[in-house]
Specification:
Helix content is about 35%, strand content about 20%. By secondary structure, the chain is α/β, with parallel strands linked by helices. It has a single domain, classed as Cytidine Deaminase, domain 2, CATH 3.40.140. The strands form 2 sheets. Strands 4-2-5-6-7-8 form a 6-stranded mixed beta sheet, sandwiched between helices. Helix 1 runs parallel beside helix 4 and helix 1 packs across helix 6.
Length: about 210
């Protein structure tokens, strides 16, 4: 598989999701608004799913179904899965992570599995605190870090830091929170707009 490019928007939302629930495992799906079949996989956004009972199949299935419908309405597609484990020193994919990633890879042959490295999850980290896997020979293998692109990393860190310091991680709504209060928007349009405001227009695609 070729290069994977992770947008500022996708990273910041994953970062805020993990920051909002620091004592819990969290997960979500990675989205692309680019057509399938390109040389590189462009992850343009993400949808935070759960922060409780990650292995609870009915809720996971419900969430994935609703995200899939929304993606079809907004010309996006699910291209991967992310997870942060409750134990910061453990960034290994869990059976739950592997199972959901397997399901996604059935529909997207270049899907990726992304684990957040909790030990590097601080605002001024010099390198992205992510560990990415790709599907090879019926198993998930570490992806070559040189093929993972997160452009404007310093600015991305700055956006994440500004939102976190102003308490804006509370704006993030995952599917769990939506189920508790259905008036909350799990597509996070308000937060998306706030991230876009902080990103320099000179960067082009975020």
């Amino acid at each position: 598989m070729g290069e994977v490019e992770l947008s500022c928007l996708a990273y910041v939302k994953m970062y805020l999701h993990a920051s909002q629930f620091p004592r819990s495992s969290v997960n979500g799906v990675l989205l692309s608004s680019n057509p399938a079949g390109g040389a590189a996989l462009s992850i343009t956004d993400c949808v935070p799913l759960l922060h409780t009972h990650l292995s609870l199949t009915p809720i996971t299935q419900l969430a994935l179904t609703q995200v899939d419908v929304w993606c079809s309405q907004t010309q996006q597609r699910i291209v991967g899965y992310y997870q942060a484990n409750a134990c910061v020193s453990d960034s290994s994919p869990t059976p739950c992570a592997l199972k959901i990633a397997d399901k996604i890879s059935e529909q997207c042959n270049n899907a990726v599995l992304l684990m957040i490295d909790g030990e590097k999850m601080f605002p001024d980290c010099r390198v992205p605190p992510i560990i990415m896997y790709e599907r090879k020979d019926s198993r998930w293998a570490l992806k070559d870090k040189h093929t993972i692109m997160l452009r404007q990393w310093e600015e991305t860190c700055s956006v994440a830091r500004q939102l976190f310091s102003s308490g804006d991680q509370k704006l993030l709504v995952d599917f769990d929170s939506h189920l508790d209060d259905i008036t909350k928007d799990w597509t996070n349009q308000k937060l998306n707009a706030k991230v876009m405001e902080l990103v320099s227009p000179a960067n082009g695609v975020v």
